[in-house]
Amino acid sequence: MTRSPVRPGTEDGSPLRAGLAEWVARARSAWLGRDDVLALVTAALDAHKRPAAARARPGDRGEEQEDA
Fold first, then answer.
1. How far is CA 14 from CA 11, 22, 41, in A?
2. Domain interval for residue 42
3. Fewer CB under 10 Å: which end of the chain, C or N?
4. What is the pTM of this model?
5. How far apart are CA 8 and CA 44, in angstroms?
6. Are 65 and 59 a contacting pair, CB within 8 Å?
7. Is 31 a member of any domain?
8. Is 5 within the bounds of a domain?
9. Is residue 21 part of a domain?
10. 34-38: which pairs have CB atoms within 8 A and are 24 or more residues apart?
């Protein structure tokens, strides 16, 4: 991981992180490579984009600054 999540609920041991780890394990067991996994995550994020007004919260890094 190149950076740590800063939002509450995304820290080590959180249900969200655990669910993602389980999903990644299933993807890897299906022989998906890193690029495949990143493409799936990117597609899911793109499908669930929030309107610009909803993104403008204090501390929000914004979708334009994402590192994959």
1. 6, 12, 19
2. 11-52
3. N
4. 0.60
5. 21
6. no
7. yes
8. no
9. yes
10. 38/68
Rounded Cα distance between 59 and 30, Å, is 36
Give, in order, the Cα–Cα distances in Å from 37 to each of 19, 26, 62: 15, 10, 21
62 lies in a domain?
A: no
Q: What is the pLDDT of residues 23-58, one digit of tens each?
A: 999 999 999 999 999 999 999 999 988 776 565 555
User: Which among 33, 9, 29 has a CA at the least distance from the CA of 19?
Assistant: 9
Are the CB atoms for 39 and 27 separated by under 8 Å?
A: no
Burial class (CB in 10 A: 0-12, 13-18, 19+), 32: middle
